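The material for today's practical consists of a large collection of protein records. An example says more than a description, so a record of this kind follows:
***
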Amino acid sequence: ARKNSQESLLTFLNCILAQPFPLPGETIEAIIMIDDKDKVDTRPVKLHRSAATFAHLDWVSFKTLFSKLSIKAIVDLLECLCAERKVIFVARDIGTLSDCVNAAYALLYPFDWQCIFVPILPPEMLEYCCAPTPVIVGVSSSSLPALGTLALDREQLN
C-alpha cells in the first residue's frame, strides 16, 4: 500500500511539474491515483490559482530546490515552515542559495511568512540566526564555521 501511495504522489507531482505555472485566475488539471482495495482508479483534479496578485510567485523557480532536496526533505521543510521553526539554508553558490531560500518562502503560498526572512545573510549578521523568533535565512557555506560557534537552539533548527 505504501508503494502505491508513493507512486500516486509521484504521478501527481510529475503531472503538476509538467505544466507551466498557471497565471492568476487560471486552472490546471492533474491526475491523482486512488488505490482502492481491489483496483487503482485515476481521477482528474483541478487546481485553481487565485486571481489575487502574489507577484513573488511569478519569478520564483522551484527547479533548484526540487533538484537539491528529496521529496521527503521538501515535505519536512514545508512542515518546519508551517510550524514557524528556524530554517537556515547553506550553499556554496549564492545563486543556488538564493533560489532555494526564495522557493522555500514561496512554498508557503497562500500563507505568508511573518518572521525574519533574509535570502542571503551577510557574515557580519549571523547573529540573526540566534533570534528568538523563527527565521528563514540563507548562509554561504564559507560562513558555516562561524555559524557553528553561535548559540543556536539545535532543537529548533532544521
